[in-house]
Amino acid sequence: MASEVGGLPVGSLAERVVVITGAGSGLGRAAAELFAGRGAHIVAVDLAVDSASGTIDGLLGEGHLALQVDVSLQPSVDALTAAVLARFGRIDVLVNSAGIAEGRAPTLEQDLEHWQRIIDVNLTGSYLMCQATARIMRETGGGVILNLSSIAGVIGLPRRTAYSASKGGVSMLTRVLASEWAPYGIRVNAVAPGYIHTAMTEKLMAEGRLDVDAIVRRSPTGEMGTATDVAEALAFLASDQARFITGVVLPVDGAYTAYGAPEDAFPGD
Ligand code: NAD
C-alpha cells in the first residue's frame, strides 16, 4: 500500500502546530480530535474557556493548549498569537471554526445589533485571525489557513441574512487571501458544509427552526452530515497532499448545492 510519503503516513500532521477557533464544540472540536490523532499540537481556542479545556482534556498525547479568546476583538486575537508564539514559536495551520448562527426573523424585522454581532464574529473574526496568523506564517516560511464557510454562503436562504452574508464574505476572503499570500507559502482554503449534526444545528432543531425531514428530502444523499465528514476534509486540505490546492471553497454538503431539480432530491421510501 502506498501509504507513506517521506517516511510519514499520508495525511500525517505530525508536530504541526494547529490553532483551531471554536474548538470547544462541534466542527472545531471534531477537527481538534482528528488532527491530534494525526500527530498535531492543538491550540484550542474558544469564547468559553471551559469548552476549550474540555476539548484539550479529551485529546490523546501532550503538547496541547487551551485559550479563551473572542475572535471578534483585536486585542484578544493579539493576545492569542502572542501566547502561541511564546509556547510553540510558530503556527503551521489555522482553522477558523468559531461562528454563531442567527434566529430566522424576516429581514424587515431585524435590527442592526443582531446583524452586527454575526458579522463581527463570523466575518471580522475570521479576518482578524487570518491577518494575525499570516503575519507569523510569513516570517516562518508559510502555513495553511482553513476557513468555515457554509452552503449559506453559496445559495440564498431566506431570513438567514447576516449569517449568509457573513459566509459569502468568508468565501471571498478566502479567495483574496489565497491570491495575495501564495508568494509567502501560505495556502488559504475554505470548506462549505451543508447541514451537519452539531450543537449549533441541534439547538436550531430543538427550537423548531430547522426541519430535519425537509432537509433530508432536499438532500441528494438523504441525510445530514457528521462533524467527522467536515474534519476529514479539513485534514486533507491541511496536509502536504494538498500542496497545490489554494483559494478553493470546497462544498462538504452531499451535493446539496449541486442539486437544482424542482422535485424532492430524496423522496425516501
Ligand atoms: P458550534 O456552535 O457547535 O461551535 C461554535 C463554537 O464557536 C462554540 O464553541 C462557541 O463558543 C465558539 N464561538 C462563538 N463565538 C465565538 C467568539 N466570538 N470567539 C471565539 N469562539 C467563539 O458550531 P459548529 O456547528 O461547530 O459550527 C462551526 C463553524 O462551522 C461555524 O462557523 C458555522 O457557521 C460553520 N458551519 C456549521 C454548519 C453546521 O451545520 N453545523 C454548517 C455550515 C457551516
Helix and strand run: EEEHEHEHEHEHEHHHE
Biggest β-sheet, characterized? 7 strands, parallel
Q: Please report the distance between the alpha carbons of the first and last residues.
A: 40 Å
Cα-atom Rg, whole angstroms?
Answer: 18 Å
Shape: globular
Bound compounds, each kind once, are: nicotinamide-adenine-dinucleotide
Oligomeric state of the chains in view: single chain
Chart the SSEs and their pairings.
Layout: E1 4-5, E2 8-9, E3 17-21, H1 26-37, E4 41-46, H2 49-57, E5 65-68, H3 74-88, E6 93-96, H4 112-140, E7 143-148, H5 161-181, E8 186-193, H6 199-206, H7 212-218, H8 227-238, E9 249-252
Parallel strand pairs: 3-4, 3-6, 4-5, 6-7, 7-8, 8-9
Antiparallel strand pairs: 1-2
Helix pairs in contact: 1-8, 3-4, 4-5
Residues 21-22, 24-28, 46-48, 51, 69-72, 97-100, 121-122, 125, 148, 150, 193, 195-196, 198-201 line the site of nicotinamide-adenine-dinucleotide.
Characterise the protein shown here.
The chain is built from eight helices and nine strands. Helix 5 (161-181) links the parallel strand 7 and strand 8 (186-193). Strands 5-4-3-6-7-8-9 form a seven-stranded parallel beta sheet, sandwiched between helices. It has a two-stranded antiparallel sheet with strand order 1-2. The mean pLDDT is 94. Helix content is 42%, strand content 15%. The protein has 269 residues and is α/β, with parallel strands linked by helices. It is globular, with a radius of gyration of 18 Å.
Task: Give the key terms.
7-stranded parallel sheet, Rossmann fold, single chain, alpha/beta, 269 residues, binds nicotinamide-adenine-dinucleotide
